[in-house]
Design a protein that fits this description.
By secondary structure, the chain is mostly helical. The protein has 6 helices and no strands.
């Protein structure tokens, strides 16, 4: 039996400040998106999905890189804390990747006339979603927790490789996906739109940090509960 990862109860102090900042930030961001930002000249009101779609994608990619760090750390040290980080990153990155795949078609239908197109960037994003889901599935169905953690770490490394492919997809292959932040367009956004986007980005990162914090602590508590149950069964 592996000793559980100790839970630092003092770290729980940061939950409420983080939750308060996230909640207040979300209220401000939603107000800016729906009350401050003007309609886009071509796409109209549907363009407002951009302020949720793009930050969700960036945060999902950041979550995958955190998953990469946790995966490599666990494979190198076998320290359960790295695995807890990898697990938390997998679940949170999967959540934000799901938001990307839901908001994308909602934006694509008015903009392109279709809900879905198998262009490179969208297809590789779907592959990322499947890889993240695969990380959770191998944990669930592996013969032991340790084997599941190792297999999930390997899949997590492949997930990070796919993020790079997604990033370069519009460069390597032509597609319909727009390049919003092109250097020759000076950002491609009007000032009010940029203000809203620059507000939404940190808010999404605050939400990401809050979810990672809660899920990591939950993983540590699950470890302790499992250890207590194992000792009770041994006695």
């Amino acid at each position: 039996m592996v000793d559980p990862v100790p839970v630092n109860h003092r770290s729980g102090f940061w939950f409420w400040p983080l939750w308060t900042l996230t909640t207040a930030g979300m209220a401000v961001a939603i107000g800016l998106v729906f009350l401050y930002v003007p309609d886009e000249r071509v796409m109209g009101a549907v363009q407002r999905i951009f302020y949720f779609h793009v930050p969700a994608a960036i945060v999902a990619f950041f979550g995958v890189f955190l998953l990469l760090a946790g995966s490599i750390g666990y494979l190198w040290t076998r320290d359960r804390r790295w695995d807890h980080l990898a697990l938390a990153s997998t679940e949170v990155a999967l959540l934000f990747c799901t938001i990307v795949l839901v908001t994308g078609p909602l934006w694509a239908k008015p903009a392109w006339g279709v809900w879905w197109t198998w262009e490179a960037k969208i297809t590789t994003t779907l592959i990322l979603w499947l890889l993240l889901l695969g990380c959770l599935m191998v944990r669930r169905y592996a013969e032991s927790r340790e084997v599941g953690a190792r297999l999930a770490s390997i899949v997590g490394i492949f997930s990070a490789a796919d993020v790079y492919i997604i990033y370069k997809a519009t460069v390597w292959w032509r597609g319909q996906h727009p390049v919003v932040f092109a250097p020759d367009k000076a950002g491609g956004l009007a000032p009010k739109m940029m203000h809203a986007f620059l507000t939404c980005m940190p808010v999404f990162f605050l939400l990401f940090a809050l979810l990672i914090f809660v899920r990591y602590r939950l993983a540590c508590l699950e470890d302790r509960a499992e250890a207590v149950l194992d000792r009770a069964l041994e006695n």
